[in-house]
Design a protein that fits this description.
The protein folds into two domains: 2-219, Spore Coat Polysaccharide Biosynthesis Protein SpsA, Chain A, CATH 3.90.550.10; 238-433, Hexapeptide repeat proteins (UDP N-Acetylglucosamine Acyltransferase, domain 1, 3 Solenoid). The relative contact order is 0.07. 17% of the residues lie in helices and 33% in strands. It has eight helices and 37 strands. The longest helix has 21 residues, at 225-245. It binds uridine-diphosphate-N-acetylglucosamine (UD1) and calcium ion. Uridine-diphosphate-N-acetylglucosamine binds at residues 6-9, 50, 72, 75-78, 80-81, 99-101, 135-136, 148, 150, 164-167, 193-195, 221. The site of calcium ion (CA) has 2 residues, from loops.
């Protein structure tokens, strides 16, 4: 099967410099959603994308080996668009036409449409809308499809029809090769209408069948930010429903955003307003507090992530405690039962089992051993303004509060650093190291008094 995706239109109502099909839904360009669906169906066929408005931006953003790109310039209508794709299509196969700005179409609806056309006929995906305004209407006679009439060309009687053309259709490619060059543009918009192939098929005696989408939102297009936001909510609602059906407990399915893939083990609870980006894998019995952002992470079993935590490109071992207000930056690897508390930032560091940094710290470019306690206000000074250096803290070390570790530096196994230490050379194992100005108390000292 050939698949042609129409994506040359301007999308004027988006009021944006970005070509419409590159606007994102669930963090991914609209066109990527359609491409994904096309790939799910296509079998061995070719995918051809007709692009135009915005120049090469669309092609450059989504280039891939399995796509034939066809530039349509100028854009003279949907019929003209498919005509440009024709030289790239296998004439022996069927061609399915999809729209780059209709992102939520589901493979099962398309499969039903393709089945309708299996006998070599033309098949249209049509829908019944309470408000058909703006769409092409399906004109039938004795139940059989005769033609499609565009809103702007329709009579009052035709405008009252509620069966609309979604634009998605499939036809034998050999027929398209005959019909498309024959299209005229004597219509209200002066465009070559793809929809006019229906009347041509009827005049040749070719049957025209129809199929309907599972749900009408599958065929909703994006023409404005308002419509984009509406489809985003529908999509997120579907994702939330799937997660709940797999057993995930969501505090509120309307307050979850998944922009990528989220996999959850059994008995996971997710509180409100969490955003998951990229690939996120969550083990069993994990609890995620409200307002967390988690991107490209793997979270082990039994982990608690408290509210307002931000995790990116991190691996969190089983039974860790994170947050509230914790930040795990790329390259963070936490082993089992590590505690990262409020206002602690960890970057490009590994922290071994049972270690804790519970308050107000920065741990960067560090290797931290087991059972290490990092006191409040500890900072690894990893950056000298030019290069990054590593800090090593061995097993069972105790880092007193308000300590700076000026890297490169190593704290030996079982070492203790006194509070307020600025460590500039290695701390030996099993020893107290402290750098601190000696405390003095001055007897007889008086506070200054205000001059008269
Ligand atoms: C089209 C259909 C209409 C249908 C509606 C569904 C025609 C003549 N009409 O109308 O029956 O109800 O879609 O939304 O087909 N495009 C190109 N090149 C062009 C023109 C359009 O690639 O020269 C692309 C657009 O980017 C868009 C799609 O084709 O993805 C539809 O174009 P649009 O102008 O929105 O068609 P409508 O007038 O809405
Ligand atoms: Ca449209």
């Amino acid at each position: 099967m050939n698949i042609v995706i129409l994506a040359a239109g301007q999308g004027r109502r988006m009021h944006s410099d970005l070509p419409k099909v590159l606007h994102t839904l669930a963090g991914k360009p609209l066109l990527s959603h359609v491409l994904e669906t096309a790939r799910a169906l296509k079998g061995s066929g070719r995918i051809c994308v007709v692009y135009g408005h915005g120049g090469e931006t669309v092609r450059n953003a989504l280039s891939s080996d399995d796509i034939a790109w066809v530039r349509q310039e100028p854009q003279l209508g949907t019929g003209h668009a498919v005509l440009q794709a024709l030289p790239h299509l296998d004439p022996a196969a069927q061609t399915l036409v999809l729209y780059g700005d209709v992102p939520l179409i589901r493979p099962d609806s398309l499969t039903r449409l393709i089945t309708e056309a299996a006998d070599g006929s033309l098949a249209l995906l049509t829908a019944f809308l309470d408000d058909p305004h703006g769409y092409g209407r399906i004109v039938r006679s004795s139940g059989r499809i005769q033609r499609i009439v565009e809103e702007k060309d329709a009579s009052e009687v035709e405008r009252a029809l509620h069966e609309i053309n979604t634009g998605i259709l499939t036809a034998p490619t050999a027929c398209l090769a005959r019909w498309l060059p024959a299209l005229g543009k004597h219509n209200a918009q002066g465009e070559y209408y793809l929809t006019d192939i229906v009347a041509l098929a009827v005049s040749e005696g070719l049957p025209v069948h129809s199929a309907h989408p599972g749900r009408n939102w599958e065929v909703a297009g994006v023409n404005s930010q308002v419509q984009l936001a509406a489809l985003e909510r529908i999509h997120q609602g579907q994702v939330a429903e799937q997660l709940m059906e797999q057993g995930v407990h969501l505090a509120d399915p309307a307050r979850l955003d998944v922009r990528g893939e989220l996999h959850c083990g059994r008995d996971v609870f997710i509180d409100v307003n969490c955003v998951f980006v990229g690939q996120v894998d969550i083990g069993a019995d994990v609890v995620i507090g409200a307002n967390c952002v988690i991107k490209d992470c793997s979270i082990g079993e039994g982990v608690r992530i408290h509210a307002f935590s931000h995790l990116e490109d991190a691996s969190v071992g089983p039974n860790c405690r994170i947050g509230p207000y914790a930040r795990l930056r790329p390259g963070t690897v936490l082993a089992e039962d590590v505690h990262i508390g409020n206002f602690v930032e960890v970057k490009n560091s590994s922290i071994a089992e049972h270690s804790k940094a519970n308050h107000l710290s920065y741990v960067g470019d560090s290797t931290v051993g087991r059972r290490v306690n990092i006191g409040a206000g500890t900072i690894t000074c990893n950056y000298d303004g030019v290069n990054k250096h590593r800090t090593v803290i061995e097993d069972d070390a105790f880092i007193g509060s308000d300590t700076q570790l000026v890297a490169p530096v190593t704290v030996g196994r079982g070492a203790t650093l006194g509070a307020g230490t600025t460590l500039t050379s290695n701390a030996p194992p099993d020893t107290l190291t402290v750098s601190r100005a000696k405390q003095v108390s001055i007897a007889g000292w008086k506070r200054p008094v205000k001059k008269k």
